[in-house]
């Protein structure tokens, strides 16, 4: 990989480990619906004009049906569940549960027949989901169990989104897909967000966190992601998934004072290790 590729990879590894930290701060005073609107609407305001200038919007709108499905399962439903869960669950635990996305993606690939079922990959699935079991058994209280289960739904959505993208929106400019999806989601959440406006002025930390989520973790992240895909390819880009949880865990423990228990440490190791086994391409074998 080139020096530029390594720089982009390092930047994204950090940037996409940050959202859980800033979400945790933002939902202290903002409703989940309003935060979804701020993040998607702000992202759309920047990315839609950029995509339109490149002629990337019109081709996407011609396939509006799969675009709607992609938006619902990749952004609209996962983000509202994620933001609700982080009102109660720590950002560290949230990041570890979301780190199971590659595991669910492997299941989706096998069910749809685009991947072979191999012993090594089955072992990876068992190892990864075993990590979630360890996390839940040691570091998650009974009152948070429902939220952890809901985060599993988020992981499933994040795994299904790329499948819909590759199956029904392939060949379209990625920037146009993301820009149109953000705009569509923002319009859908506008009524609910207006009904949940805060009754008191927001603190500086909450405003700064929401702004960082929008500008850095959405706009900058997606632009960097497209550049990285062009540099190293989509397959190698997925390795970022193994870096994000560690960044989120470090921030949660050091900046938010979240508990670092044995289940968190063991869960991180098992989930990331299982994801590597479950998604790694065999020599000469079929890939994603």
How would you summarize what this structure contains?
This protein is mostly helical and 288 residues long. The chain has one domain.
Beta strand % = under 5%
The tally of strands reads: 0
Shape: globular
Q: What is the total number of structural domains?
A: 1
The low-confidence runs, each spanning 5 or more residues with pLDDT under 50, are 282-288
Radius of gyration: 18 Å
Sheet of most strands? none
Going by helix content, strand content and strand pairing, the class is mainly alpha
| Fraction of residues in helix | over 70%
Mean pLDDT: 86
**End-to-end Cα distance:** 20 Å
How would you spell out the order of helices and strands? HHHHHHHHHHHHHH
List the SSEs and their pairings:
Layout: H1 3-15, H2 19-26, H3 32-53, H4 58-61, H5 64-85, H6 91-98, H7 101-111, H8 119-139, H9 145-168, H10 174-194, H11 204-232, H12 234-237, H13 244-255, H14 262-279
Helix pairs in contact: 1-11, 2-6, 2-11, 3-5, 3-10, 3-11, 5-9, 5-10, 6-9, 6-13, 6-14, 7-9, 7-14, 8-14
């Amino acid at each position: 990989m080139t020096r530029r590729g390594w720089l982009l990879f390092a930047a994204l590894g950090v940037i996409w480990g940050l959202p859980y930290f800033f979400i945790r701060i933002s939902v202290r005073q903002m409703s989940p619906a309003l935060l979804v609107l701020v993040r998607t609407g702000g992202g759309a305001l920047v990315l839609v004009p950029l995509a339109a200038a490149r002629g990337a919007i019109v081709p996407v709108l011609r396939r509006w049906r799969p675009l709607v499905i992609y938006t619902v399962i990749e952004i609209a439903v996962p983000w509202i569940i994620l933001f609700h869960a982080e009102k109660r669950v720590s950002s560290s635990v949230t990041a570890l549960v979301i780190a199971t996305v590659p595991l669910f993606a492997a299941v989706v690939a096998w069910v749809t027949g685009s991947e072979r079922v191999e012993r090594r990959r089955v072992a990876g699935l068992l190892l990864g989901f075993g990590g979630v079991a360890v996390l839940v058994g040691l570091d998650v209280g009974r009152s948070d169990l429902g939220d952890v289960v809901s985060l599993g739904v988020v992981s499933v959505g994040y795994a299904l989104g790329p499948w819909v993208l590759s199956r029904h929106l392939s060949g379209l400019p990625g920037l146009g897909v993301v820009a149109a999806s953000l705009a569509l989601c923002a319009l859908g959440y506008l009524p609910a967000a207006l009904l949940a406006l805060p009754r008191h002025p927001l603190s500086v930390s909450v405003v700064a966190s929401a702004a960082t989520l929008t500008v850095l973790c959405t706009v900058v992240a997606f632009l960097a992601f497209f550049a990285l895909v062009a540099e190293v390819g989509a397959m190698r880009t997925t390795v970022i998934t193994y870096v994000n949880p560690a960044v989120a865990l470090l921030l949660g423990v050091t900046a938010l004072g979240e508990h670092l228990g044995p289940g968190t440490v063991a869960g991180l190791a098992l989930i990331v290790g299982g994801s590597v086994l479950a998604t790694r391409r065999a020599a000469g074998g079929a890939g994603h």
